[in-house]
Amino acid sequence: MDGVLLLHKPSGMTSHACVNRVRKLFGTKKVGHTGTLDPDVSGVLPICIGKATKIAQYLTAAHKTYIAEVTIGASTTTEDASGEIIDVKKVENSLSTDQIQQVLKQMTGELEQTPPMFSAVKVNGKKLYEYAREGKQVERPTRKVFIYDLLLISDITKHENTAAFKIKVKCSKGTYIRTLAVMIGDELGYPAHMSHLVRTHSGNFSLENCIDFQSIEQYLQEGHFPKGFMTIREALKHLPQWSINDTLAGKVKNGALLKLPKELENIKTSERIVVLHRGEPLAIYMKHPNNKGVIKPEKVLETK
User: Fold this and answer.
1) Whose CA is closest to 26, among 301, 216, 233, 236?
2) Residues 42, 173, 47, CA angle at the centre, nearest 5°?
3) Class assignment of domain 3-61+204-234?
4) CATH 2.60.120.560 fits 239-300, yes or no
5) Active site includes 87?
6) Over the chain (304 residues), what is each successive 10-residue block's mean pLDDT?
7) 13 within 8 A of 39, measured Cβ to Cβ
8) Cross-strand partners of 170
9) Among 71, 9, 61, 73, which Cα is nearest to 40's?
10) What CATH architecture is 63-202?
11) Do domains 3-61+204-234 and 63-202 have the same CATH topology?
């Protein structure tokens, strides 16, 4: 089975563990995910199977959407609910939804974030969480991210010393939602952490089209393709597609340069073209950086 499985990742599993389970279910070693989700996070996790592992880079979404719960009044070592509490401040009853909405409005657009110590970002060839587990603090590089939408989607739930509310975030790749929760708390004048997170969209893939492990097992036992399983062509439908004849197909399989077809002359240099033969993707092409009117292969999917 060559294609992309839209997995509804459960909380409590690492993305790597999900890949291993899919390997066993489908009986193949060629499996890979398109973007890590933290163990405590659930939601959309596209997994490439078989030949689809060759297209993983084209499925790494430029934007993602999350539903997150922010708890203010307490911060943690990991910036989420799994860490130890390191700072507390009782939340005043005067906190209002208007205050929160104003902060969210201010934080929409380009932001600078410093990745949390408990993250997979590498510094000097070593992952930050490895330093953190050794009790070491290292200087972390800031990164620019973009928040497209940041909305308050619940009332404020007051507890004895803390308060919580839910937000919907549409953001660029590389955004840390738990760090965003801490930043929101800072603007409100309180320590904070992310207490729950679900990824509802990864690019064009949505949670409503995903499938959980229990359902996958049931489908496979019955001998059916699981719901949420997409062919390689379906998974690449967000890219321009070009169908070719048998003669050109032979050249594509050998990695030949081709003349840019007229119907695709207006595509951007950054865009990629899915070259199809008899309805099946043969290769991914791109505009040649030096030769105008020529396209070259970036990834050949079929060589036989």
Assistant:
1) 216
2) 50
3) alpha beta
4) no
5) no
6) 93 94 93 88 95 91 92 94 93 93 97 79 75 76 93 95 97 92 96 97 92 92 82 93 93 93 89 93 94 93 79
7) yes
8) 65, 149
9) 9
10) 2-Layer Sandwich (3.30)
11) yes
Q: Pick the catalytic residue: 2, 38, 98, 246?
A: 38
Q: 82 is written with which tokens?
A: 């799994």
